[in-house]
Amino acid sequence: MQLEVPRAFYRALRPLVAAARRGPAILDLGCGSGLLTERLARAGARAIGIDASRPMLRLARERCARWPGRVRLLERRLESLALPPRAWLALACGDVVNHLSSARVVERVFRSVRSALAPGGAFAFEAHTPYAYATFWSDNTHLLEGPQGDLLLDCDYDPRRRRAVARMIAYARERDGRHARAETTLYEYAHTDAEIRRAFLRAGFGEVWRRPWSPWPDADEPRLERNLWCGLDPGAGDFAPARALRALRFRRVARRAAA
Length: 259
Hints:
Blueprint (H helix, E strand, L loop, with lengths): L3 H9 L1 H7 L5 E4 L5 H8 L4 E5 L2 H10 L7 E5 L11 E6 L10 H13 L1 E12 L1 H8 L2 E7 L2 E10 L4 E11 L5 E11 L3 H10 L4 E7 L12 E7 L9 H6 L3 E5 L4
Helix pairs in contact: 5-7
């Protein structure tokens, strides 16, 4: 089920990727096991996958092994990327921004990302809305079954703290047919549209664009649970994403005042 999220995210932003493919490597922030990174490389782009988890980067290295000349993987935290300002496009897929625990942390990460963008570069990501957590996470349990094992998710949402929690128990199938049990807890945080717009502008982005979105093609439009966001660096460079954003039905929702 969750494999469809990076696939749909890539399809939704394919024109941006195509336009950025001729430039420097595209940044895949919070790349995890490399689902989006591998898709970027397969499309002919160079990609830099960035994650703070060594186990996830090991999986990404295996997944992207067929693209040794196109994929580079870095172990870094998003609030301290320390990359030269070269990238035309930075992407984040898989609730990456919802993993950030406060508006202050979101702003720190956005500043770090902007420092890695070339003039006129773009930072695009998808994020759950508070409505989604209140509607689809609150007191909700899922059982996911697959050839490699089963996963039980017990989800809940605290609207006061705007914190979502997923308690997960996995039964991974081993080679001898038995199952290994693992348990962990995932936390996500709901950020309002106003908070995200403010974080973009405070981080120095010149324009903020947004589009309601869902990775599920049968989603009921009034109940779309996510937004696609894109912030544009105010400088003028070789990458001009605004036309592609308009074609993709993004709407500009904020602009930084001229100095």
